[in-house]
Design goal:
CATH topology of chain A: Cytochrome p450
CATH class of chain B: Alpha Beta
Helix content of chain B: 10-25%
Radius of gyration of chain B: 10 Å
Distance between the termini of chain A: 57 Å
Strand content of chain B: 15-25%
Bound molecules: protoporphyrin IX containing FE, iron/sulfur cluster
Order of helices and strands of chain B: EHEEHE
Structural class of chain A: alpha+beta
Distance between the termini of chain B: 5 Å
Shape of chain B: globular
Number of strands of chain A: 11
Largest sheet of chain A: 6 strands, mixed
CATH topology of chain B: Alpha-Beta Plaits
Strand content of chain A: 5-15%
Helix content of chain A: 40-55%
Number of domains of chain B: 1
Order of helices and strands of chain A: EHEEHEHHHHHEHHHHHHHHEEEEHHEE
Radius of gyration of chain A: 21 Å
Oligomer: heterodimer
CATH superfamily of chain A: Cytochrome P450
Number of helices of chain A: 17
Number of helices of chain B: 2
Strand order of the largest sheet of chain B: 1-4
Largest interface: A-B, 25 and 22 residues
CATH architecture of chain A: Orthogonal Bundle
Structural class of chain B: alpha+beta
CATH class of chain A: Mainly Alpha
Number of strands of chain B: 4
């Protein structure tokens, strides 16, 4: 290592600053001064942190940076995450090609653009339904539990062939799995219960097939029920927490920026670019995409040795001024397609076409149907999810 | 401009279809890229370059001229 490094590597994760929508100031400083730098994790181990857009793309696109969590040196940002990765059959997000590609290609057709566009009318009805119910319950309402969370939950249940009546069961367990302060035992239990649940579901689909994803995975005959359950678990968890938090955090960001909100209301066709910009600006996957180098690699002038871990900070990359001018401003009409909110490389979000459709409909419908939407509590009292793998707000009380 | 795609590298992200549906499509059976037009007209060139930039797997190659 060269002497250019600060004596004390940054302790990871760093705290957020005054603006709850912006990445921690220390990551932004690193991006400007040392875009490939050393950090110290919770267990005292060290790894690399990459913060600039160009280098984040380089690392994520190069498969010599492995996603295989069983390799020594793979960085885990909590002890719970480590336990999760090392004790189960790996799901595809933690595997490399060719095994990753084999599994991913069993699912790509289901999430491709043509398929998700066809879902628009169905998703619109689901969104309208939950909004009707929220309005019927009366103000104030928690936008998270009454709108943002149930929409993607119901949608992913329909696609997978999971009974929505069980939503409280899996929502609670995925919350435990994604909570940074859950104990290892709590996480093990939540994971085992969810896996059992999905394995029983797979067995049932073997006897009573339908046209959901789980049933079709079973019918292919290439995977055991345990492997189907592992895939189902990934889709169920990745498919609802992310979109839910993007929806509620987007609502808050727009309520805090009346000029941008007015623009969206005046020009509803802006919703597609608006959602891309919100994805960039909010970057809810905030804890860093983990990889481990399998060869010595030079990135941003630094040598990353084989066996060293790397965290790719997509939140910092999405605020890179070299790519997005005035990156700290929300600009709904901006060209933000180069954002990396869905990651980059072969692991780039499989569900992104679905997430886009859900977000476009949820955001547009909310502000169109509730012109008087506003916060029901002081902004200062909102609790942000700094303690969760996916950023957002714990609750968002609103009136209209 | 001439465009080529590598179906082995493609991870079916659909970014290219989002950028230029006139030039890229996804195969019905597995969501992998299908090239509709390997010599796209001039008015699409900018979007095709964007597609190559945002393609996460590096599966799109653009040969200028
Ligand atoms: C706003 C919503 C979403 C965001 C911001 C998001 C973000 C991400 C990111 C950053 C990754 C890359 C992880 C890595 O490279 O290590 C990823 C992967 C993934 N996402 Fe999403 N996601 C969202 C919605 C969804 C939805 C709705 C689904 C599904 C049904 C989904 C399923 C997946 C899967 C299966 C992967 C793993 C892909 C692979 O490893 O090949 N996501 N997502
Ligand atoms: S953008 Fe690249 S990876 Fe995505 S579908 Fe098109 S060619 Fe495949």
């Amino acid at each position: 290592m060269t002497t250019a490094h600060p004596v004390e590597p940054l302790s990871f994760p760093a705290p957020r600053g005054a603006c709850p929508f912006a990445p921690p100031p220390a990551y932004e400083q690193a991006r400007r001064e040392q875009p490939v730098s050393r950090v110290t994790l919770w267990d005292g181990s060290q790894c690399w942190m990459v913060t600039r857009h160009a280098e984040v793309r380089t690392v994520l696109r190069d498969q010599r940076f492995s996603s295989d969590a069983s390799l020594p040196g793979f960085p885990f940002v909590t002890d719970g995450r480590r336990a999760l990765a090392n004790e189960t059959i790996s799901n595809l997000i933690r595997l490399d090609d060719p095994e990753h590609a084999r599994l991913r290609r069993m699912l790509t057709a289901d999430f491709m653009i043509k398929k998700t566009e066809v879902l628009r009318p169905r998703i619109q009805r689901i969104v309208d339904d939950f909004l009707d119910r929220m309005v019927a319950h009366g103000a104030p309402a928690d936008l998270v539990t009454e709108y943002a969370l149930p929409i993607p939950s119901l949608v992913i249940c329909l696609l997978l062939g999971v009974d929505y009546v069980d939503h409280a069961y899996f929502q609670e367990r995925s919350r435990v799995m994604l909570h940074n302060h859950s104990t290892v035992d709590q996480i093990r239990q939540a994971r085992d219960e969810l896996t059992d649940y999905l394995q029983q579901l797979a067995e049932r689909k073997r006897r009573e097939p339908d046209d959901g994803i789980i049933s079709r995975l079973v019918a292919r005959g290439e995977l055991g029920d345990d492997e189907v359950a592992t895939m189902g678990l990934l889709l169920l968890v990745a498919g609802h927490e992310t979109t839910a938090n993007m929806t509620s955090l987007s609502a808050l960001a727009l309520l805090r920026d009346p000029a941008q909100l007015a623009r969206l209301r005046a020009e509803p066709a802006l919703v597609k670019t608006a959602v891309e910009e919100l994805l960039r600006f909010l970057s809810i996957v905030h804890s860093g995409l983990p990889r481990v180098a399998t060869e010595d690699m030079v990135v941003g002038g630094e040598t990353i040795r084989a066996g060293e871990g790397v965290l790719c900070m997509i939140s910092a990359a999405n605020r890179d001024e070299e790519v997005f001018a005035t990156a700290d401003q929300l600009d709904l009409a901006r060209e933000s397609r180069r954002h990396v909110a869905f990651g980059f490389g072969v692991h780039q979000c499989l569900g992104q076409p679905l997430a886009r459709v859900e977000l476009q409909i949820a955001v547009e419908t909310l502000f169109r149907r509730l012109p008087g939407l506003q916060l029901a509590i002081p902004y200062e009292d909102i609790r942000f999810r700094t303690d969760m793998a996916i950023y957002g707000v714990h609750e968002l009380p609103v009136t209209w | 401009m001439r465009v080529s795609v590598d179906t082995h590298r493609c991870c079916g992200s659909g970014q290219c279809v989002l950028a230029v549906p006139e030039v890229f499509d996804q195969r019905e059976e597995d969501g992998i890229v299908r090239l509709l037009d390997h010599r796209p007209p001039a008015e699409l060139h900018a979007d095709v370059r964007t597609a190559a930039t945002v393609c996460p797997s590096g599966a799109i190659e653009v040969h200028e001229a």
